[in-house]
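U., I forgot to send this yesterday:
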Amino acid sequence: MHEQPEYRRAYSGERTCGKIWEQYGIQRMEATLKTIQAINANPRLLPNITLGVEIRDDCWYSPVALEQTIEFIRESIAAQTTGSGGAAGEKSDQNEPEICLSSVTESSGVTAAPRVKRKKNFVGVIGPGSSSVTIQVQNLLQLFNIPQIGYSATSPDLSDKTSYKYFLRVVPSDRFQAAVMLDLIIHHNWTYISAVCTKGL
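Result:
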């Protein structure tokens, strides 16, 4: 939900994030929550299954993303060990709904809401958005057989299943996007094109 830290802060060892990124942060978070709500409200999609989501802010910055990934893996292992996501030996109400609360890393400068103990059943990770950060996170997740889905990571390197066997994505790699662009230019017999780059959406 936040941008990368400023150059000086990034290389000073501080794990602080930049300003809030509305397009790539807030809007995508709202879209995720709305999608989860719509799926849970439709009994025909996943009957007797309630989806939850725990949103973590990686700030599009590898050190923060890896820190969040380690914490996620720790909680995932704890959930598998205890069978309920609680402390060892803690009893859990079987009728208790499975929910995951949204949280923001303290490094972003935003105080996260107090965590409420609920049963968690982690099934995978969606994101991060950046390809370079996604690659580093995948290197950690695959050690624990945790699947990862990329929604905007388009690096061709991530197509190598021997290196990233637990990674899937819902967008084509840059290699295919470039090929489509070239085919479009050839089809229309264009001899001159202009590339426009914008920050945000």
